[in-house]
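Dear colleague,

Following up on Tuesday's group meeting, I ran the structure prediction for the two-component complex that the binding team flagged. I've pasted the input sequences exactly as they went in, so you can double-check that nothing got truncated or mislabelled along the way. The structure tokens for the whole assembly follow below. Feel free to forward this to whoever is handling the docking comparison.

Inputs:
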Amino acid sequence: MSNLHAASLSIGYSGTHIFEQLDLRIPSHKITVLIGKNGCGKSTLLRSLARLLKPSGGSVLLDGKDIYARSAKEVARQLSILPQGPVAPEGLTVLQLVKQGRYPHQSWLKQWSDADEQAVTRALTVTGMKELQDRPVDALSGGQRQRAWIAMTLAQDTGAILLDEPTTYLDMTHQIEVLELLAELNERDQRTIVMVLHDINLACRYAHHIVAVSDGAIYAQGSPQKIVDERLIRDVFAMECRMIQDPVYKTPLCIPIGARADSQMIEGTGRDSVRMHKKGEEMYVG
Amino acid sequence: MRDKHIILRNRVFSYVIERRAIFWTAGLILALFVLICVSAGVGSLWFSPLEVLQAVFGHGSDMVQKTLFAFRLPRAMMAVLAGACLAVAGALLQSVARNPLASPDMIGITGGASAAGVGFLVLTGGTYGVGLLPLAAIVGAVLTAALLFAFAWKGGLSPLRLVLIGIAIQTAAGSLTSFLIIMSPHYIANQAFTWLTGTVYGNDWRDVLTLLPWAAVLILLCVILARRANVQELGEDVAASVGSRVNRDRTMLILVSSALAGAAVSQVGAIGFVGLMAPHMARRLVGPSFGAVLPTSACIGAMLLLVADTIGRTAFPPEDVPAGVFTAAVGAPFFIYLLLRRRRVS
């Protein structure tokens, strides 16, 4: 179900190419995380996978069929996307929002079937929004608001869920809360999840599959343990770092190293390419 | 769920309606009915609402019957219909544009309809009378919407561009109207000016029956489109994500809105601010869900225009002050209040 695949996909706005001839297979029933620098095109890629952005060439295949050969509603029954920073109309309650997720399953005559009611109730329960269902979305905290939007996406009841930076603007507690919820959904319902995340360490912790995007191409993809290393961070993010193992989760943990770090601090990284602090600056040697 | 909603479900259809929406719609319809009776009783001859009600059911003296059926009731019904059309047109636009400040008189639809109406009066020199004036105004509204699309469409319909270009078109249409009035002889200018300000004066049953089918069909269409309007309010990306064909749906909603505004303007002239105020008041009562906003804002719009017309008709005898003067007097401060509130929120 919901096998998502980009085949020689090209994306560009008015002449400039962002991606050319890109091939990407999203593993089904797994969590895939797209990482890369700001402006590298990872959000663009995610949007084109979800039919929000028409490719200039190639195609996105959902279960082997081009998503543009199907109706918007048909695709929306199999695949949902939560865009970055969505805004709810003033005064809209959580329940009213979550109900909108049922849109692709409804028609003018059938606007509230048993299936609709069950899906909405389940979405509210799973996200822990049942008690808050009558509260206006704009009166919720950032984490609750994001959970309400995720609940809407869940009510859509799709095999694949795409999320563009679902943790932006959230504090640490709420970031973890949202990611735990998504991991739980993946584990329990076998839903395919694809998201863009900025935090490499959280990406490594929650992703089964990481796709590193750089300069309009896929730099590397695979499990975090296999592909995320110091070289990848340097090549994709133009950043020096030191990789250690997360003592709790045993996933790669990235310690970013800024330009002002001195050589003794980073001793043991085995790297001489780390830039030294500028000449004339005071030096602190421990 | 069930304590706040009524669910209608069988094998053919299923609907869910918020109890709050039913409560307010019923209440407002009742209030509107009472208001019609009161309004029809007010004037140089005073009747109590009860007398009005009796007259409607065929009782009462000839004079009462005549005053009500020949003059006051058609006028009241016209105010009710036109007010409802303008309010629903505004509610639709506010959904599509995701901008609470959008309304037919902000994005040029009313202006275009007015310019076409005045153009018709000036060009024909009054020879055809006002019989064809409605048609001219409807054509003007739809043409303006088409023009708006031509300028605002850029691979899609961005609400912001729609509103900005709409303001430009509104201004241009206003200039054109002024030009036409200045260039025309006095008696036509006078006629055009009264029509422009928005007046329900001189409407008879024939006018009411001209507007009624338009209003009925278009508002019914809104009921069918309510789901789509709801989804548009979540923004382009979310709407597309849940399977809406965003550009097609937006086009459809804007066309219905223009036709509603054009139909209303054709009968009562350019009455401003009803389309802006009524949906806001409705949302205060029933929340933002379009299915609930639609009937409640229609009722509120009807009441606003009815009250404005009743005041215009009775407050400064023997002058019959156009209803548009009073809707603007309340509407302009309301608009500023909305602007200030929005600034505080953001």
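Residues 62-97 of chain B form the longest helix (36 residues).

Cheers,
M.
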